[in-house]
Amino acid sequence: NADELHDLRSVSKSIVGLIYADRYVVGLILGLTLTGIYSFYWSLANALQTLVATAVVQTALPILVRSYREGSRDGWYRVMKREMIKTALLTPALAIGIMIGSEVLIYMMGMSNLSEHRLLFSLMLAAAVIRCCSDLLNVGLISAQADKLYVYYNIAGVFISLGLMALGSYLWGLDGAGIASLITAVLLLAMRVYGLRHWIRKDKLLS
User: Fold this and answer.
1) Burial class, 175, CB count within 10 angstroms (exposed 0-12 / middle 13-18 / buried 19+)
2) Gap between the Cα atoms of 5 and 13, Å rounded
3) What global pTM score does this model have?
4) How far, rounded to the nearest angstrom, does the alpha carbon of residue 156 sit from its chain's CA centroid?
5) Taking the CB of residue 148, how many other CB atoms lie within 10 A of it?
6) From 23, 34, 118, 185, which residue has the greatest number of CB atoms within 10 Å?
7) Residue among 126, 146, 130, 122 nearest 73 (CA)
8) Phi-psi bin for 145: left (phi > 0), alpha (psi -120 to 50), beta?
9) All residues at 6 or more sequence positions from 175 whose CB lies less than 8 Å from its CB, including other chains
10) What crossing angle do the helices spanning 32-52 and 147-206 adopt, rounded to 10°?
């Protein structure tokens, strides 16, 4: 219906906002040069999230939807647990591979100034790993028909990200931006875990 379509559009805008807004904040506070460094590492970290989304998260959606519609909440939970374990094991391994590959790339291209910001990249990769797990929980919310929670968490994520990014960048520079990314990822993961568990528990009582 019209309300659901409006919600989906709002979520799409919030996700786009979350993807790009952090760089605007970093640019405003830290300037163009440091924003370039941040954007370089952001691109590598985002490649990890895109790869996991394609290989694991998107393929899990039809399985979770089918399991939920069949009415077995225990079956749905087993599928979610299996996919979460797969994501939690695969993503750190890929992150390590990207970290090693970036070191080789930086060395070959002679970009020694980037190597001074390894802490930033480590924080951003850690945040990307957590976001991959959080993305799977987003898929869980969709499959469980928890549309309002899905909308709420994604829109809230934009404002949390903007606030923490501004604060972290102002206080600690580029490393603060990485810390903000990591804290935002942890907060959204915790919110989605709580929301999904509460939704499923309530649904089991009503079914």
Assistant:
1) middle
2) 12
3) 0.89
4) 13
5) 12
6) 185
7) 146
8) left
9) 117, 119, 120, 123
10) 40
